[in-house]
Amino acid sequence: MNVFKLRQGEHGSQALTAVGFHFATSKKYPWYQDRAGHVRHYAVCPECDNPIHIVNLDVVRKIDNEGRSLPLYAKHAVGNVEGIGAFDPEAYEDCSLANPKSLNGTDKSRRPGKVVSGILEVLRDHADALHYMIGRFLSADISDDLFSSILWQFHKQEGYLYRAVSTSNLPYSLLYMAGSQSTYGCFPKPESVWSRALAHSAHFEMGKWGIRRKSDSKAQLRFFVTDHAIKNSPDGHEQKMTLVIEEEYSGERKRLLAESQSIEIQRFRNMLSKRMRLREIACKEFPAHTDSK
């Protein structure tokens, strides 16, 4: 992974660079530790809150014996680390930074517990953030009814029990498991993927206020998301999903567009971290059941 935080229980994360780690830790214990005569570097995973080991920080050689560059990265310590914290195997097993899983699978083997509780908490407490990220992926404003329909599909399938679903990819998990959705309640941005799709439509076009019919036909315009792909990249894991837009008329379906788009895991993670951090500040100032006098 290419992100870290300093302490368990805190919100937020930082991009992992050598200089950034130096400034964040001041090169002090517990992030710098002497182990058997060698200095080891530690921090905390921003998602699962487990200890992580920083690899190839301050190494003497920047290349291996075969002349290849040694990348700076973090990996889970898979054990307790003094001064950093205890290791939680359940949280590690479901951490998308440790081993992201494609939503294309059907592994519904997660049991109710800490991870499921975390997902349900995000669904309840951060619905507006989920709504925003879904609209961002679709390049459209979405209505409350459309958002409700997406949530209903996820709930019906017990999406929180699928191992590929995490708090970090939750907006995209909701979209992936939403099935085929009507574009009623979807108001695309100008010059977006929708404009390219509707250029091939016989029944719909982009109007001043969004999608409009070209005639009084009974055609339906729908979308769904598929093909969640995860690839290694210099920055960690690059993830994409494919947005498919179709129209249906008299029982015949016509695919107007199928386009792969990047998903913004880190943006959503940072959004949640900031919201929780600000909430903690406000709750500290105005604790529950405080007398207003």
Describe this structure in words.
The protein contains eight helices and 14 strands. 29% of the residues lie in helices and 27% in strands. The model has no long low-confidence stretch (mean pLDDT 88). It has two domains: 91 residues, no CATH class; 162 residues, no CATH class. The strands form five sheets. It has a four-stranded antiparallel sheet, with no helix packed on it. It is an alpha+beta fold. Helix 4 crosses helix 6.
Query: Which parts are unreliable, with pLDDT below 50 for 5 consecutive residues or more?
Result: none
Structural class from helices and strands?
Answer: alpha+beta
N-to-C CA distance? 49 Å
- What is the beta-strand fraction? 25-35%
Output the helix-strand order.
EEHEEEEHHHEHHEEHEEEEEH
Number of structural units classed as domains: 2
| Rg over CA atoms | 23 Å
Give the helix proportion (percent range).
25-40%
- The average pLDDT score comes to 88
Quaternary organisation: single chain
The number of helical runs is 8
Question: What's the total number of strands?
Answer: 14
Q: Describe the biggest sheet?
A: 4 strands, antiparallel
How would you sum up this structure in a few lines?
29% of the residues lie in helices and 27% in strands. The chain is an alpha+beta fold.
Map the helices and strands.
Elements: E1 3-4, E2 14-15, H1 18-25, E3 32-35, E4 38-44, E5 51-55, E6 73-76, H2 89-93, H3 114-125, H4 127-138, E7 140-142, H5 144-156, H6 170-176, E8 181-182, E9 186-188, H7 193-198, E10 204-207, E11 210-213, E12 220-233, E13 236-249, E14 252-262, H8 265-285
Antiparallel strand pairs: 1-2, 3-4, 4-5, 5-6, 7-9, 8-12, 10-11, 12-13, 13-14
